Each structure stands twice: as C-alpha cells, then as structure tokens.
C-alpha cells in the first residue's frame, strides 16, 4: 500500500487536480490546503492527502487517478480489511462499556457501522514532503498536521519504520514512537488506534478523543526523507442518530465524575453522524456549512 501511495504522490500535479477533494471529503488535497487547527495555525498543514470513500461491489465510488486505476482491487481489499478490524474493535469497546444486552450488547456500535448505507468512512493516504530550505519551517516547532482529534468513531493509523513526528496530547505533548519500546523492531510497526470524537460524544466524554499532531522532528532536516502514513477513519452509517449509549455502567460513571448526565438528547436535538461530520469538515477546509 505504501508503494501505491508513493506512486500517486509522485505523479504530476495535473493528474492530482483531476481528482481534487470536494465537499464529499473524497479526493486529493494539496499542500497547505488543510488546516486542522485553525484556531492556532497561521498557515495550512505541510502535507498532501488522497481520500477514498467506500467501495461498492469492489468498485470505487469516485474518480480514480490515472496512476491508481489498475490498483482498484488492492485498494478495495485494504479498505474492507480495515473496516472489518474496526468492527471487531468496536465490539470489544461495547463489551468493555457493558452495553445493555437488550439494547444490542456487544453489537450496539458495530451494527451502526454495518455498511447498510453510505457513511463518512475514509481511507486516507498521506504524504509529508521534505521541508524545502526556503519554506521557513522550524523543525520541532512548525506543524505538518495541526493539533486535532479525528471526527469519526475510531481511526487506524499505519506508519513506516523510522518516520517519527506523531505526538499525542497527554499532560503535554508526548512523542508516539512508531515502534514502542516493547515491540520487536524487526517486525512491521503496530497499528495505532485513535478514539475519535463520535465515540467520545456517544459515551458522554468517558472515552476521550485522542488529540494528536504531526511535527517536523529535528532529524527531518537531516534525513531528507519524505514521510508517508495511512489512516482509516471509521464512521457510522450517515443516518445514525447520535443518541446516548445504553449502558448502566456509563450512567453510573457519569454521576461519579460529577459530569453531565449521559443524555445527548437533553442538549436540545439529536444530530446524525452525517451532520456531525459535515460541521467538522466545514471548519477544517473553510467550506460553508
């Protein structure tokens, strides 16, 4: 998959522009076009990306760039594998949260991600180019991807060995090594799983969104190597209502924390997964809501 990513990002800009990103969140976004932390960033992220939405009967539901037309089946298979893994992880979350059996139990989350209708799920190929010498970027300080949390339920992140830069907010910014100390470095890096805003919202904040960013590490100016990663953003079906998770465990935890009762409906109105995503994308790309 990383070879496919390199192949696309090394193609001419004219080819990339044929599949430029639109408000359906599918397609190519150019360097500096995305601002993940608009409140604090003075300019966009120094990266480019290619978003793939869901496949239907093995076929992409968007124009494919010329360089990847022959790889449609590979992209479809990888997308499906990512989705299947997310479904299993969501079942484990449901078990851990002790969702009421009569409400769906371990399948409460996964049934809302069953691909019975369109969703905001996205496979994203990411390319962080070498920082040009005239870009005035300061290694270790300037941002390749601004501080943000992901918009969906959970995210799978795939990274390449030796390509550091990811940081996670946990009482300050902490480096998230591609290979944690406990992992055999001769093996491929483990998949990093982020909790997204929807899962946090659903659980009344009990599960916290993973706030993260990508910085330019000091070694980037020395190694002269482009950074590549891939992310799979798992979203529920668009029409899913973001109602409270039916869990006595969560209700009790909310009371003990002195937090607001886990009752999203009491906030005024129940929104859908699609409405939630549309609002977040509008802020990121400067689109009108």
UniProtKB/TrEMBL annotation:
Q: Where is the Fe2OG dioxygenase domain?
A: 118-236
What GO terms describe the biological role, i.e. biological process, of this protein? small molecule biosynthetic process
| Descriptive protein name | Fe2OG dioxygenase domain-containing protein
Q: Has keyword Metal-binding?
A: yes
Q: Which UniProt keywords apply?
A: Iron, Metal-binding, Oxidoreductase
UniProt keyword annotation of Metal-binding present: yes
Q: Which InterPro entries match?
A: DIOX_N (IPR026992), IPNS-like_FE2OG_OXY (IPR044861), IPNS-like_sf (IPR027443), Iron_ascorbate_oxido_reductase (IPR050231), Oxoglu/Fe-dep_dioxygenase_dom (IPR005123)
GO molecular-function terms, A-Z: metal ion binding; oxidoreductase activity
Q: Which family does it belong to?
A: Belongs to the iron/ascorbate-dependent oxidoreductase family.
Query: Pfam families annotated for this entry?
Result: 2OG-FeII_Oxy, DIOX_N
Q: Which organism is it from?
A: Arthrobotrys conoides
């Amino acid at each position: 998959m990383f070879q496919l990513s390199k192949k696309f990002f090394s193609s001419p800009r004219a080819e990339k522009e044929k599949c430029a990103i639109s408000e359906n969140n599918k397609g190519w976004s150019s360097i500096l076009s995305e601002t993940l932390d608009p409140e604090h960033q003075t300019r966009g992220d120094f990266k480019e990306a290619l978003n793939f939405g869901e496949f239907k009967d093995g076929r992409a539901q968007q124009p494919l760039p010329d360089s990847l037309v022959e790889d449609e089946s590979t992209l479809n298979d990888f997308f499906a594998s990512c989705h299947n893994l997310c479904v299993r992880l969501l079942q484990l979350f449901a078990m851990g949260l002790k969702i009421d059996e009569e409400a769906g139990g371990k399948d409460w989350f996964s049934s809302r991600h069953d691909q019975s209708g369109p969703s905001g799920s996205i496979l994203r190929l990411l390319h962080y180019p070498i920082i040009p010498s005239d870009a005035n970027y300061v290694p270790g300080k300037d941002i390749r991807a601004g501080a943000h949390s992901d918009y969906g339920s959970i995210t799978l992140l795939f990274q390449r060995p030796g390509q550091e830069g990811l940081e996670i907010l946990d009482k300050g910014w902490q480096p998230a090594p591609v290979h944690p100390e406990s992992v055999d470095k001769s093996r491929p890096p483990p998949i990093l799983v982020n909790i997204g805003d929807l899962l946090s919202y659903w659980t009344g904040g009990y599960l916290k969104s993973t706030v993260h960013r990508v910085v330019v590490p000091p070694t980037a100016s020395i190694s002269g190597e482009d950074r590549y990663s891939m992310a799979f953003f798992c979203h529920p079906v668009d029409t899913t209502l973001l109602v409270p998770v039916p869990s006595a465990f969560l209700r009790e935890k909310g009371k003990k924390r002195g937090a607001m009762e886990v009752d999203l409906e009491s906030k005024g109105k129940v929104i859908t997964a699609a409405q939630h995503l549309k609002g977040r994308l509008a802020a990121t790309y400067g689109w009108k809501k």
